[in-house]
Amino acid sequence: MGLTLKEIEKIMGCGDKGLGPCCDLTTTLFSHKIEELEEKIQELEGMKKPAEENLGRVGGQPKKRMGKAK
What we know:
mainly alpha; single chain; rod-shaped
């Protein structure tokens, strides 16, 4: 799910303190992870557009990848 070993260790160690603190920490970690993923998606989308434009300039068409759902 994209968590680092250190983040998993924090969650595991937090379980000793009870369910409430553990759930709060897990919620915080996943909220941050979602923010990181959204930033990466924006960055990749920004890189994709120029690549598509360059492909169009040379007259190519994107190749379909097997197994990729759109």
